[in-house]
């Protein structure tokens, strides 16, 4: 019976083996040979930025890097072991290691002890799927005593920092462990020990290189680090666009605005893995391509000259005048009035160095479109044109410039009493009273000395609507994020309408002033300002610019609904400001060979800067708009110096404006001279070659 039972069991076993091998053999064989294709995208360097003359502004510099690639079957314990080995070879920043990171590390190191932190009842709830693992893990973290994690040595802390970085990546996707400050000794040591460091590799990474240093840094923007990866607030958006969590992206301004252009095409590799998750082969699907390059409208050489002028004049005013104590910023914009191309976008700010306690100058170019101020009489060109359009005045209309005595209001007057003047003279000498009488007529009112001044409050809407056609009080459309539109005053009294007419009520950004004066300079076309001139294909194997993919065309946002002769008359008034005696800028621009035109501005305002203890202090904001040459404008300019002085001080707006215009035309002349010399030399060389050939 025993023999028969054994025989029967072996017979069943043989039959079963036969069934498995014959009937299901092919199925099991296919299962053993089953593979999985996992596509991994590797990041590529970002595109470069050039100035309008082909000079590199932003580049990529190579970095030695140490990476870690987690396999699909890699365990947490194996990762900890690798991190501990790597910590003996390289140094990493441990300042961001938190208690939570130490506890994560401890749980992997002590799995049995970590399991015992959970009671049997709690494990039962987990087994019955009433609790998820996330709850169990959180309980483990909460129950780990500080004594268990406070004994870690410096090397252990380095291992924890490395382990944290290893965990940030996806399976089969390389994760940066260290890419800044990798010493040659560290790079060599890791390379020599790769066999004992599974998943670790040495490679070349990249970082942004700002060729101009601090110049334009706030406009160029920032890129997230390898540690930061995708910003949390934009995570879903980028993940939907096939980004990886640890990809570096533009965080601000040009880097952010043109992220889709600068990011490039990632290299794609298909990893073929077996059933156990081991990589058995790799296939490169796409080599990837560096991001496309941006050619900016900025003239880098001109930009540096403009910034130097701002710095020199601000420091000089700080040294020489005690009333300039609150002045801490100044802005200059140079723009092609016909295309909207920004030639220079400069802003400087004086701040106190946290380390030394001394004052220092830093880039503040973003303030040209993210901050707004009362700009004063610079807007009077728009006021006069609005007067023409509404019929409040006609070209040649004259008014008596006299102090205005309005009931229950302080006397209002110009900086000087001018008597009877017309529209051109009003612009030339910057008459406030002429502008006031213009908007009084616009508001269907009439000035009676010592009487009330009732107004039609829709005049506020009329004036603001007209100003917006020049770009004042509305976004200009510059190709940068976070542009502000300024602030319109909330109240609508007769006195505030008068203030609005002379630029002392609503606030405007410096870029709005540049668009406004460009609109007057070019005959009435409001051009959209832009910083990017071209998008080009990257050149992978040599320096220079690649083929043009897209050229940014000039964009007219609107045309002034005004007669050309009206605009020409205001242009003439602007010319008188700078080129005729009694013009408010004549003492600075007289004799200028480039035939300038423009308008100065001074606004009574209140300080609201970084020193909160001085908020509300009465100050003077200074501005200047201009263009040149008057008869064929090629450059428009806006200068704004907020909180320039208290009571009295230097005309720093005119000082800066004159030197900036000089710099522009001097640079143009230098380049033309150099071009002529090169052409002459080339012609001479060709003639010499021809002579030698004939001989």
UniProtKB/TrEMBL annotation:
Residues 331-662 form the Penicillin-binding protein transpeptidase domain. It is a single-pass membrane protein. It is an enzyme of class 3 (hydrolase). It is found in: Cell membrane; Membrane. Residues 685-695 have a biased composition (Low complexity). Keywords: Cell membrane, Cell shape, Cell wall biogenesis/degradation, Membrane, Peptidoglycan synthesis, Transmembrane, Transmembrane helix. Its EC number is 3.4.16.4. Residues 43-283 form the Penicillin-binding protein dimerisation domain. It catalyses: Preferential cleavage: (Ac)2-L-Lys-D-Ala-|-D-Ala. Also transpeptidation of peptidyl-alanyl moieties that are N-acyl substituents of D-alanine. Residues 671-695 are annotated as: Disordered. It comes from the Bacteria. Pathway: Cell wall biogenesis; peptidoglycan biosynthesis. PANTHER family: PEPTIDOGLYCAN D,D-TRANSPEPTIDASE (PTHR30627), PEPTIDOGLYCAN D,D-TRANSPEPTIDASE MRDA (PTHR30627:SF2). Belongs to the transpeptidase family. This is serine-type D-Ala-D-Ala carboxypeptidase.
